[in-house]
Amino acid sequence: MVYLTEIHKIMILQMIGYGDRTRTQVAVVRLFQEKYPELPPISQGTVISGTWTCTAAKEKNPLNKLSDDQKLDLMLMLEENPHTSSRQTASALSISHSSIFRVLTENQMHPYKLVPTS
């Protein structure tokens, strides 16, 4: 297996192209060897792995994200009445019960006592 630097990986991605201007793996291997004859030859598998290792990571589930306004509304509601149950708070704000607990733990609040945990 050939160990490539980040610059070489980026060059492979540029050689592949995008949209309707993409090249085959064989063409990319040939172009790479012409451009960098001093490096050991790469395989088609290197081209395939190069396309997957340089992609950006996605968020796990963006649908469950709360906006900053919703988080602020939740914290303000709990500050006004800390004895409201989490289920009543969830139905009043139209967010899920589990999101209430997640926001509380993100803000270092204990879900049952509503006091800072540290």
From TrEMBL:
Origin, by domain of life?
A: Eukaryota
Task: State what protein this is by name.
Answer: DUF4817 domain-containing protein
Native organism is Aromia moschata
Q: What is the lineage of its organism?
A: Eukaryota, Metazoa, Ecdysozoa, Arthropoda, Hexapoda
